[in-house]
Design brief:
The chain is 48% helix and 9% strand. It is α/β, with parallel strands linked by helices. The protein folds into two domains: 3-145, no CATH class; 174-266 and 378-562, Alkaline Phosphatase, subunit A (3-Layer(aba) Sandwich). Strands 1-5-4-6-2-7-8-3-9 form a nine-stranded mixed β-sheet. Helix 11 links the parallel strand 4 (263-269) and strand 5. The longest helix has 40 residues, at 3-42. The N and C termini lie far apart (107 Å).
């Protein structure tokens, strides 16, 4: 063969190789960026913003690195990379399909995807990369042109057309998620005494009756609120009902008020529709976004911090991230044992529920002039719930300092040390919350609603900043402190004719709420309500379920300066 013929045959081969590398580069780039673009479209965030641009630049870098690896021609290695990139794409693009109750099962699904993809790449190498590129392009175009978008903020469902009875005073019912009870603050922490006094001062100033020893019978929000609205409490009623049976008694605590002529308006978080717990017709639901990254758009945060939050919210839907996190935790625990402490990237700490609920308080304040007689308004705010993103003056912490309620690097849910670190952050966020509630009460006073409305503030469970998680801990190891951290919660109410002050009855919110709605907030609960055994539900096995809620907060009563007089 002549030298010219050798050159001419080498040129097409080089061009083919270059074309193959270009196809692979775009496969890598789209495998990363197409699901992320779909995620941005879903949250109405696909626009040129610096916090998003940085993530796309990172995807380009990853794609270039993987393309460089492909310069080393190895068929088996190339098949492994192909299978891996398909798995990464599927993990993010079809997260809801892959995510199972068991992390092991999710991993099995991804492993099956890997085997099929790698096997295909091994035997049909020339066709699989162009086919993958074509599929990724179709996915990207379809996700942008025909997007699946999150429900719009403040969207309404199940609109109630009838007006409420104008002769009835309005009811304003605010659920403060993860709010610790007034006697539940850890007496061994110096911040507790001051914040408890401040909160008691708020309730005294605005004429509330505060149940300082109130607690929830349930650890989880879903069970707590469902049973509260269903007027289901204690083993006598609950043990006779299965999980599905609760639907038949949903809303029992409010049916009488509905029959009297109240019109219900519910504003809840988009991923936990409160109307499902109320369970009767004629309820107007207005859901607001609690977890959408769209909340970030007008937040006063530097771009790099917004990038961190977006990345955290994107990653936490991934099975691969959860697996990597577990491996990371094991490695970091080994480093801790050697005396080396390194911060861990916990995507759960970058939840936007705190900031979205904090912003929603301003909407509630703005809506005060629209509240009408005959309306029963329910608001669900995911605050002071983690992450602890707000300082006492309501400025936003640097995102890298946001914390969740648990510690990933301790043998138990928290260690004594991490519990002591988290409570001051929780208390600062609580102080910010009450600064805004003060503004709300002032607005209600200015509008004339303060004197004639019934106003209810309560939690759904405790702070849950606990050393041991009661539902997951053998009963013999559960301490009184664990129970107080987990189940002590707020319950405070004011209404015309109700005696204000401090009530130290150790009673569950699941008993208090139907007692008040039964009288349309016109009378205090009967003694038999507050005198019943204070039991809470650990769930699980029958032997691990109903136990007594301990007496708590008694140390506060030794110092009369920490108490407030009854109005």
């Amino acid at each position: 063969m002549s030298e010219g013929a050798q050159v001419s045959s080498a040129e097409p081969e080089a061009k083919t190789q270059e074309s193959g590398l270009l196809i692979r580069f775009f496969c890598y780039l789209l495998a990363f960026s197409a699901p992320f673009s779909s995620f941005l479209v879903y949250h109405d965030y696909l626009e040129f913003r610096s916090e998003v641009a940085g993530i796309f630049v990172l995807f380009v870098v990853f794609a270039l690195l993987l393309t460089a690896v492909n310069l080393f021609q190895n068929l088996i290695f190339s098949s492994v990379i192909y299978g891996g990139i398909v798995v990464v794409f599927c993990d993010f693009a079809f997260a809801e399909m892959i995510k199972q109750d068991s992390l092991v099962l999710s991993l099995v699904i991804l492993f099956a995807v890997f085997l099929v993809s790698a096997f295909a790449a091994r035997f049909i190498t020339k066709a699989c990369w162009p086919a993958l590129l074509a599929f990724l392009l179709v996915f990207l175009i379809s996700s942008v042109v025909v997007p699946q978008q999150q429900q719009a903020e403040d969207s309404s469902t199940g609109l109630a057309s009838a007006e409420g009875n104008p002769s009835l005073p309005p009811v304003i019912h605010i659920i403060l998620d993860e709010h610790l009870g007034l006697d539940g603050f850890p007496p061994d922490m110096p911040e507790s005494a001051a914040v408890r006094t401040e909160l008691l001062g708020f309730f005294h100033r605005w004429g509330f009756r505060a149940y300082t020893q109130a607690f929830s019978e349930e650890f989880a929000t879903k069970n707590s609120l469902r049973n509260l609205f269903a007027a289901q409490s204690g083993p006598e009623s609950m043990d006779k009902l299965g999980e599905d049976d609760i639907a038949s008694v949903a809303g029992d605590a409010l049916r009488d008020m509905s029959a009297q002529g109240y019109r219900f308006v519910v504003e809840g978080i988009d991923h936990a529709n409160l109307c499902n717990f109320i369970g009767f017709a004629g309820v107007e639901c207005r859901n607001y976004e609690a977890l959408s990254i769209r909340t970030l758009k007008d937040m006063p945060l530097p771009s790099w911090q917004k990038t961190l939050v977006i990345a955290g919210n994107y990653l936490k839907q991934s099975t691969l991230y959860k697996i990597a996190l577990n491996v990371e935790i094991l490695a970091f625990k080994q480093l801790q044992a050697a005396g080396i402490t390194i911060p861990i990237f916990d995507a759960e700490a970058y939840s936007l529920s705190t900031l979205s609920s904090f912003r929603h308080i301003d909407k509630i304040i703005g809506d005060v002039p629209q509240i009408k007689d005959g309306e029963y308004r329910i608001y669900h705010l995911v605050i002071p719930h983690f992450p602890y993103a707000l300082k006492a003056d309501c400025s936003i912490r640097e995102v890298s300092n946001w914390q969740s309620y648990d510690s990933l690097l301790t043998a138990t849910f928290n260690s004594l040390e991490t519990r002591r670190e988290k409570y001051p952050l929780y208390i600062e966020q609580l102080r910010c919350l009450y600064a805004r509630l003060d503004v709300l009460m002032q607005r209600l006073r200015e509008s004339g609603l303060e004197e004639r409305a019934a106003i209810l503030l309560h939690g759904d469970h405790g702070s849950r900043i606990t050393v041991n998680l009661p539902p997951d801990t053998p009963r013999a190891r559960i301490t009184d402190t664990d129970l107080v951290d987990s189940y002590s919660t707020l319950f405070a109410v004011r209404a015309p004719g109700l005696k204000a002050g401090v009530d130290r009855s150790r009673v569950s919110i699941q008993k208090l709420f139907p007692a008040f709605t039964g009288s349309a907030f016109s009378a205090l609960p009967a003694p038999e309500v507050t005198g019943q055994p204070p039991l809470l539900n650990l769930r699980g096995k029958p032997s691990h379920r109903w136990i007594e809620m301990p007496n708590f907060g008694m140390g506060w009563y030794k110092n009369p300066d920490r108490e407030i007089p009854e109005p």
